[in-house]
Amino acid sequence: MHQHNHSLRGKKLAISIFLNLLITAGQVVGGFISGSMALLSDALHNFSDVLALVISYIASVLSLKEQNVKRTFGYKRAEIIAAFVNASVLIVIAVYLSIEAYQRFKEPQEIKSVWVISLAFFSIILNGISVWILHDEKTGSMNIQSAYIHLFSDMLTSVAVLLGGVLIYYFQVYWIDAALTLLIAVYIIYSTWNLLIDSLKVLMLFTPEGIAVEQISARITVLPEVKNIHHVHIWQLNDEQIHFEAHIDFESNLKLAEVNQILENIKTTLHTEFNIDHATLQPEYDICHDKRLISDSH
Question: How far apart are the first and last CA of the chain?
Fold first, then answer.
């Protein structure tokens, strides 16, 4: 079922790549002919969509590869890396658009609005199809979410460009082109920042959101056999898997069978109460001197 979902995502991403190639080609030609910076900025944004979707597609394919002795986690991080790269590229594009918008404010240029209106409408239709295709797939995947944000933000920017083209056509308000470019840049940063930070946290192995190490410690040490839990590490492997490792210090020198049963109970508690999928627990009795909950020691 999991592989089927990834396969379906891959097909949907491939369709979206094709549609955005059409949009980009049309907007680049129309942007140069019309002289519209907003249209060219939208084309650049669309081209970033193409790159983002290609990265997302490759990551989606790689994530299906099996683990082996050289890659014990497989390529499960591929989609997180794709989300981070896509978000980073969007931020850079937004900064570039802001600089270009400032230059246009200083030197407004005449714009052929018919081209702007026509190609913006064309972009809205094709981007709308892509957004609709990926809508159901974005939940539970930072990778697909990053691609979806690319497409949805570009659809909205195309709506803004269309409205700008109409204003230019009827009122010859050429500065609106630069204003829209700046608004597009601000919206890109606003819609992308959280995704950039979330994907960075995963790559940096930060404790996943919503999980409190102190609560886990309190829950485990309430067991009468457990004296202490220390050397805790919690990290998120990808969108779906949270890993946990810790040393469990026992009150007495228990038999191995008893230790195994307690460790299994702890793993069940971690899964049911804290949504931790994989736990590695090291049992100890009077051998470790560093009892800190979080420690650099191994």
Answer: 37
Under CATH, domain 2-203 is a member of which superfamily?
Cation efflux protein transmembrane domain (1.20.1510.10)
**pTM score, two decimals?**
0.74
In the prediction, which pLDDT does 288 show?
65
- pLDDT confidence of 214, banded at 50, 70, 90? very high
Residue 62, pLDDT above cutoff 60: yes
Helix axes of 175-203 and 78-106: crossing angle, nearest 10 degrees: 160
Instruction: Kindly list the domain boundaries of the chain, sorted by start residue.
Output: 2-203, 213-284
Q: Which helix (H) or strand (E) holds 292?
A: none
Which pLDDT belongs to residue 2? 47
Q: Decide: 166 and 89 in contact? Cβ < 8 Å.
A: no
The letter for the amino acid at 242 is I
At the top level of CATH, which class does the domain 213-284 belong to? alpha beta
Helix (H, G, I), strand (E, B) or coil at 283: strand
